[in-house]
Design goal:
Layout lengths: L1 E5 L4 H12 L3 E6 L14 E4 L8 H5 L4 E4 L7 H5 L1 H22 L3 E6 L10 H20 L3 E6 L2 E2 L12 H10 L4 E4 L5 E2 L2 E2 H18 L4 E2 L2 E2 L3 E5 L5 E2 H6 L6 E4 L15 H6 L7 H9 L1
Helix pairs in contact: 1-7, 4-5
């Protein structure tokens, strides 16, 4: 299968491309390297450095794909306060570019969204832009009949996660601080809870979405559902407080700082549709991951 992965040099994209190559697919990555890294390149994948906000994109115009996984985005809530223009361009305009290209050949698109869209949409630019991306996908699905699946990710962690810079997740920050013998920095009281999902589980969910939407082109109803236009929650189904994450590092120093604006108090996936329709079964546990892979 000839597959385009946007954001293929980033954290989730790299893990996903490794899986696609292992499964024998032909893979092309499109990334502007704002957060992606060349050291993440995987042998066998073709990598192109282009900005999806540009009006003309030779890679999109020249090549044909059987499916597009649109993972590219500027992640994280806090940086979006300082860079709203960049966040809108990367998360909304790039999505429109992909959908317009996909519409020309009716190429199925799997869109990577965020569990933050279940909170206050106006709490921060990042959440708002991911929601706008979802709305664009729904528009193209309903108006142009473009095959679409939306996947909402819940606090992803695992190999290739960033440990430096503004776009680190909390575990990436803890990893860096622990390796540097510095106290773990916890915002607020540390009792905010997150549904942490291992990147291998996210990758498996994406693969299953790709397989089922390609089948859906010929078989529009699977298990009573119309798959095109569907959304799936890819969350582990359990959550931990930030304090509990720090506890997993043992008797290690921690430091509490002021709570950050724009973040919801709790994320927890209670939707079982992905399990029922896709047969998706998340297996990762972040506490076990910390103790087995980081200490």
């Amino acid at each position: 299968m000839r597959t385009l992965v946007t954001g293929g040099a980033g954290f989730i994209g790299t893990n996903f491309i490794k899986r696609l190559l292992k499964d024998g697919h032909e893979v092309v990555s499109l990334d502007n390297y704002s957060t992606g890294k060349e050291e993440n390149h995987q042998e066998g994948c073709r990598y192109w450095s282009y900005d999806l906000t540009e009006s003309r994109n030779p890679v999109l115009e020249r090549d044909e794909y059987e499916i597009i996984f649109h993972l590219a985005a500027l992640p994280r809530i806090q940086p979006s306060f300082d860079n709203p223009m960049s966040t809108f361009n990367s998360n909304v305009l790039s999505t429109l570019t992909i959908l317009e290209r996909a519409k020309q050949t009716m190429t199925p698109v799997i869109y990577a969204s965020s569990s933050s869209t279940h909170g206050d949409l106006y709490a921060n630019p990042y959440t708002f832009t991911k929601w706008q991306g979802e709305e664009l996908c729904k528009l193209y699905n309903l108006v142009y009949n473009l095959p679409i699946i939306i996947c909402r990710f819940y606090n992803v962690y695992g190999p290739y996660q960033a440990t430096e810079g503004a776009y680190c997740n909390v575990l990436g920050i803890f990893e860096r601080l622990y390796n540097n013998n510095e106290p773990l920095t916890i915002t607020g009281d540390g009792e905010q809870r997150r549904d942490f999902t291992h990147v291998d589980d996210i990758v498996d969910g994406l693969v299953r979405c790709g397989n089922i939407i390609l089948d859906d082109i010929e078989y529009p109803n699977i298990g009573g559902y119309t798959i095109s236009g569907e959304d799936f929650e890819l969350g582990n189904g359990n959550n931990y407080s930030i304090n509990e994450l720090a506890d997993a590092f043992g008797d290690y120093p921690r430091e509490y700082v002021d709570e950050r604006p724009g973040e919801i108090r709790e994320t927890l996936n209670t939707d079982t549709k992905a399990q029922e329709i896709l047969g998706w079964k998340p297996e990762g546990d972040i506490v076990k991951y910390i103790k087995s892979s980081m200490l």
